[in-house]
Write a structure and sequence with these properties.
Blueprint: H1 15-37, E1 39-47, E2 53-64, E3 69-70, H2 73-87, H3 90-93, E4 98-101, H4 104-108, E5 120-125, H5 132-143, E6 148-151, H6 157-163, E7 168-172, H7 178-185, E8 191-195, H8 200-209, E9 213-215, H9 232-245, H10 251-259, H11 261-271, H12 285-309, H13 315-335, H14 340-348, H15 352-356, H16 360-365, H17 371-378, H18 383-396, H19 399-408, H20 413-429
Parallel strand pairs: 2-4, 4-5, 5-6, 6-7, 7-8, 8-9
Antiparallel strand pairs: 1-2, 1-9, 2-3
Helix pairs in contact: 1-2, 9-12, 11-12, 12-14, 13-14, 13-18, 13-20, 14-17, 17-18, 18-19
Length: 436
């Protein structure tokens, strides 16, 4: 993160000099705020053949708040770098490399070196004009430990030279002659990443061709198993959650919690966790329920359901469900704070069909969700459904749809970006929420 300015170095100088330097600091601060306030950022996971997340790819989109027009590529790329410095790359990296799209200007002026090589990867478009200067910069970055990803493939001498210093190439599914292109470049590059992998069939095809990394949201697609039986632990949590959803008072849920020894144990362990900072140990289910309240009990049971049912799935599935939950909660705080618990559950259950391996209709039939949440999960045109769709479009980087939905909901770009950044950071910091 960029170092904060201080006024200590101004002591002992004349007031005119102080004023000028403070003015420059204020201009710099506003420029940084402008960078954050005017860009949307999408973080797309890259998985390996075992569904393990190995990196992220950033997609971004920036607008000039004054003219409401898309910013030119060079200026946009500069603002992205400034924005990442202001936000802190570690907040969105999940301790994995994040591939950031760069331009010639950013490479030549050394902007990449502002970030640690273990967190930032360089994503270079195949149509970048490659010359000796660019090759020298890329070779230097590789020696410093920065991974370099080339997007696309062209059959030119300059591209062949760039391959020698690159660590991976990304090719989108569906492009012409994909298989033959992979065969041509495979001997020259260690990493082959397939882009736009949106279905399980895409994933299988990409593996057969020879790709080793896969960027896309194929893993979020449900794989329905007819007649699938839920694990006993998931079933117990779901039954408790169903009763809690319809409860009007704590006394309505005390019985179901106390009848299940495992749930009672997990509840007491949860309330006595260090994060709550209680002075004395809670030893009764009744006391724990009273301290949490109905809203937090619903949220806790929902998280338990994801933790239990999500075992064996790519970790990114549950991580995205948590990210959506926190983003929607943050959106609710902007204009409907009294509904933020409902928005949280909306995001959390948005991948319920994928996590349970059953249709969304069958999954929702097992729960007694509020009507607004049910509509949000089944009717994209509903008020809740539109905001869930907004969060999904941010993930996919469909910025035209993001702008349209955000405008219709009265959400400013800067507010949405702030909500998303806080959600990413919260998920990174709270992975233990799903721990046993």
């Amino acid at each position: 993160m960029a170092s904060p300015h201080t006024v200590w170095g101004l002591l002992g100088t004349d007031f005119a000099a102080c004023g000028k330097r403070l003015a420059r600091c204020e201009r710099h601060r506003r420029q940084q705020e402008s960078a954050v306030d005017t860009f949307y950022l999408g973080r797309q996971p890259i998985l390996d053949r075992e569904y393990k997340t190995i990196a992220y790819g950033l997609v971004f989109h920036e607008w000039d708040a004054a003219t409401d027009e898309k910013i030119a590529t060079e200026k946009s790329a500069r603002l992205l770098v400034h924005g990442l410095m202001d936000i802190g790359l570690s907040q969105i990296s999940n301790n994995l490399p994040v591939y950031v799209p760069v331009t010639r200007e950013l490479l030549v002026r050394g902007a990449v070196s502002e970030f640690p090589p273990e967190l930032l990867g360089v994503s270079i478009p195949a149509d970048l004009q490659v010359d000796d200067e660019i090759l020298a910069v890329c070779a230097s970055l590789r020696q410093q430990g920065y991974p370099i990803l080339i997007k696309g493939a062209v059959d030119t001498a300059a591209y062949a030279e760039l391959l020698k210093v690159a660590s991976a190439v990304k090719l989108d599914m569906g492009v012409p002659d994909l298989s033959s292109t992979v065969k041509r470049i495979r001997p020259h590059i260690a990493g082959l990443i397939a882009g736009r992998v949106e279905t399980h069939d895409d994933f299988e095809q990409a593996m057969a061709i020879g790709f080793t990394g896969f960027q896309g949201f194929f893993f979020c697609r449900p794989q329905i198993v007819e007649g699938k039986l839920l694990p006993a632990s998931s079933l117990a949590v779901m039954q408790a959650l169903q009763q809690v959803m319809g409860a009007e008072a704590i006394s309505d849920v005390e019985g179901v919690m106390m009848r299940d020894v495992t749930l009672s144990y997990r509840l007491l362990r949860h309330i006595n966790a260090a994060a709550f900072g209680l002075r004395s140990k809670v030893e009764s289910v009744r006391q724990a329920l009273g301290l949490l309240g109905l809203s937090n009990i619903r949220q806790w049971l929902s998280l338990l359901l994801l933790a239990d049912a999500g075992k064996g799935l790519p970790a990114e599935v549950v991580r995205i469900a948590l990210q959506r939950a926190k983003m929607l909660e943050g959106i609710a705080e902007l204009n409907q704070p009294e509904r933020k618990s409902e928005y949280f559950l909306l995001g959390l259950f948005s991948l319920l069909d994928t996590i349970l391996g059953i249709s969304m209709k069958d999954a929702l039939a097992k729960l007694c969700l509020p009507e607004a949440i049910h509509q949000g999960l089944t009717e994209p045109s509903s008020s809740y459904g539109r905001l869930l769709q907004l969060v999904k479009e941010v993930e996919h980087g469909d910025w035209g749809k993001v702008d349209n939905i955000a405008r219709s909901a009265g959400i400013k770009c800067g507010d949405l970006m702030g909500v998303q950044t806080r959600a990413l950071h919260w998920v990174n910091e709270n992975s233990n929420l799903l721990a046993e």
